Amino acid sequence: MAAVIAYEEVVNGFTTSVSEDEVNLLIEIIDEADLCLDGAGVSESRQRILKMYAVRHMLFMQANGGRGNLTSQHAPSGASQSWSAWRGVGVNASPYGASLKQLDSSRCIVGLLESDGPFLSLMSIGRGACK
């Protein structure tokens, strides 16, 4: 039986400015792998961690408006910010994706995120809701 994850599990210990509604939509996208995961005999506990890491990977890729990681910040007012570019492509671009690649032996989740076609890219537009 397919594992079910909730918003609270995804954001527990993970900081994001993405709204709860949008996180729930990302969870629904990852739930598209349920038939594959069940068919491959993936345990419920493994399904839960795979799904949480997949959603966190997508949230990580959206961090800072898609600019990458904030590497430095200066102020009293010669204001400045520096950003690093994402390293890697697809699931290789985040630590959550790297963990997914190691844990997803069925490739059900990795296959959903990384296909032969264009890579899945989700961006948040507008004001984020901080919780």
User: What is the CA–CA distance across the termini?
Assistant: 32 Å
| Percent of residues in β-strands | 5-15%
Mean pLDDT: 79
Give the neighbour order of strands across the main sheet: 1-2
Derived from helix and strand composition plus strand pairing, the structural class reads mainly alpha
Overall 3D form: elongated
Order of helices and strands: HHHHEEHH
User: Can you summarize the main beta sheet?
Assistant: 2 strands, antiparallel
Give me the Rg, rounded: 16 Å
Helix content: 40-55%
Number of helices: 6
The tally of beta strands, per DSSP, is 2
Poorly predicted runs are 117-124
Q: Could you explain how this protein is built, in words?
A:
- By secondary structure, the chain is mainly alpha-helical.
- Helices cover 43% and strands 8% of the residues.
- The protein is built from 6 helices and 2 strands; from the N terminus they run ααααββαα.
- It has helices spanning 7-11, 20-30, 34-39, 44-62, 95-103, 108-113, and strands at residues 69-74, 80-84.
- It has a two-stranded antiparallel ribbon with strand order 1-2.
- A hairpin with a 5-residue loop joins strand 1 and strand 2.
- Helix 2 crosses helix 4 (44-62) and helix 4 (44-62) packs antiparallel against helix 5.
- The longest helix is centred in the middle third of the chain and has 19 residues, at 44-62.
- The protein is elongated, with a radius of gyration of 16 Å.
- The relative contact order is 0.19.
